[in-house]
Amino acid sequence: MDDEFLVRQILGGNREAFRLLVLRHQRALFRFLGLLGFTRDAAEDVAQQTFLRAYRALASFDPQQARFGTWLFTIAKRLAANERQRAHHRREQAVDELPQTEAAAPAIDPAVAAERTRRLAAAIAALPEALRSTFFLSQIKELTLDEVAAVEGCALGTVKSRIHRAREQLRAALVEEES
Amino acid sequence: MDRCNETQENIAAGVALSAGEQRHAAGCARCAAVAASYSLLDATLETFAPAVPDGFADRVMALVAAEEAVPGAAKQERGGSSRWFERRPVQLAVAHAAALCAVFNVAWFVVRVFAADVALGGTP
After folding, report:
1. Among B63, B85, B51, which Cα is nearest to A54's?
2. Containing domain of residue B6, as a range?
3. A59 in Cβ contact with A132 (< 8 Å)
């Protein structure tokens, strides 16, 4: 049962089929928003709005143009950017603060793990927006690189280059301070 | 050296290594160090993903249902704004009910005071 089948079901009046789409994509969406620096509450707000917006616009979704996941993350990316701008204008700390982390990997000193997280959060915040968005879209493993290019509206080569640069900058931020 | 460059390029790009590159990385101290540093990055990034809150899908479906119950609600969105009363239909209903109760109680109190006043000496 692919996404496009579920979309047809929803458009045919089976609203509950939308729940399956939500369940299928929610984890990747939260992962994307978490990587962008949204706190859990802020991520939930944006994720809710993303799904709601998708539901409202479902009739305009064209499976010939893109997969549902690509279309959904295009919406999410736009809403996340809007929310970051609003938060910036409100001078709130909804984004760009330390994300709530899940349990750290075992056998790592919690203080060391927290320090790494802090350094990485700072390095992420310092990334140019285009690098950050492209890198995180690739990082969630939901989209192919071609689909990331479609969401970002750039060439595949640009996506690869941005991923490479983002990874290198983040790695350097982690490793240099530890060595 | 070319093998190192190729392997490290792929590690840096997050591309899956071929079997040959994996063998090379396992035996090359420099490539192994690069692989370890990127593994550390990937592991640390993993901790950034918030868990999906319990009941998230239910809340989305409630929003969808509420939206369908109000004709034209879909047209109310403007530039992605999300006002609290659009996102909290249940809380809004409870607030309305509470306000209604308060008005009813005040009216009931006024009626009772007025009725008692008339009964106790309102007549000349």
Report:
1. B63
2. 2-46
3. no
B43 near A105, Cβ under 8 Å?
A: yes
ipTM over 0.85: no
| Spatial contact of A147 and A69, defined as CB atoms under 8 Å apart | yes
Return d(Cα A16, Cα A56) in angstroms, integer: 14
In the A/B pair of chains, how many CB contacts fall below 8 A? 123
Residue of B nearest to A116 (CA): B44
CATH 1.20.1050.10 fits A106-179, yes or no: no
Instruction: State whether residue B65 sits within 8 Å of chain A by CB.
Output: yes
User: Are B38 and A56 a contacting pair at CB < 8 A?
Assistant: no
pLDDT per position in chain A (179 positions), as tens? Answer: 788 999 999 999 899 999 999 999 999 999 889 888 888 889 999 999 999 999 999 999 988 888 899 999 999 999 998 988 887 777 555 445 445 444 444 456 777 778 888 888 888 888 898 898 898 888 887 788 888 999 899 999 899 889 989 988 998 888 776 65
Interface test with B, best of A14, A135, A174 (most B CBs within 10 A): A174
Residue B9: its chain A contacts at CB < 8 A? 164
Q: Does domain A1-96 have CATH number 1.10.1740.10?
A: yes
Q: Is the pTM of this model over 0.80?
A: no
CA distance B39 to chain A (A): 9
